[in-house]
């Protein structure tokens, strides 16, 4: 009989597939980042947590004390490494996809399911881009822990249409990461929802193809990364309310269509995975 630990080891040893059209290459240096890691950012004495930046997370209790019962392993964690004012809209999407309304954290839908989440948020009135730490350099201890304890990780990001290699004004999401099955389900659900989705390729920052990327630091060594253009994220919130303080209470139907598509893809993925 295969026990839980043995099965995880077998799954983790399975070859990870790169995104269609993606080319494995060393991650670029990202010289534009002011900080080489989250640790370096936290060590900066000029920054104040709760003023310049914030961190939010939720890890659900796994109670395995009873000999007659087996607690379910955490399957999916949702993260936003550049939330708040860094890549606008990703914090709100992180909460909603995890199963919590971004305005008041009420379980949404009330029947669940809910997932673990973690986010790093820029909290300044301006200049939040300097707080960006690229995903391959994300070494926040809580982020690493929640990802390492989950079968699946979904990482949410923002980009411009130009960074995505798309025409100006494009409303689209680029789907990357090393989990080919997860990518497939996401692409299918976005198509069903009428949301333009493109398979990510090229540089690591967009494609999420490095094993060092926080999205791939799961129990299985692979996850998914969603890069959403500025125009797509702006269309998810009421006009004039696309700000860090207003977004959570001013979501539009597109926001919830997007959330539903992603949650459905997550549900499909979890259904293919054995009970551990």
How would you characterize this protein structure?
Helix content is 27%, strand content 16%. The chain is of the alpha/beta class. Strand 2, helix 3 and strand 3 form a beta-alpha-beta unit. It has a 7-stranded mixed sheet with strand order 1-3-2-4-7-5-6, with helices on both faces. It has 8 helices and 7 strands, in the order ααββαβαββαβαβαα.
> What is the CATH class?
Alpha Beta
- In total, the number of strands is 7
Element string (H = helix, E = strand) = HHEEHEHEEHEHEHH
CATH architecture level-2 label? 3-Layer(aba) Sandwich
What's the number of helices?
8
Number of domains: 1
| Apparent shape | globular
Strand content: 15-25%
Summarize the structure.
The protein has 276 residues and is α/β, with parallel strands linked by helices. 27% of the residues lie in helices and 16% in strands. The chain has one domain: Aminopeptidase.
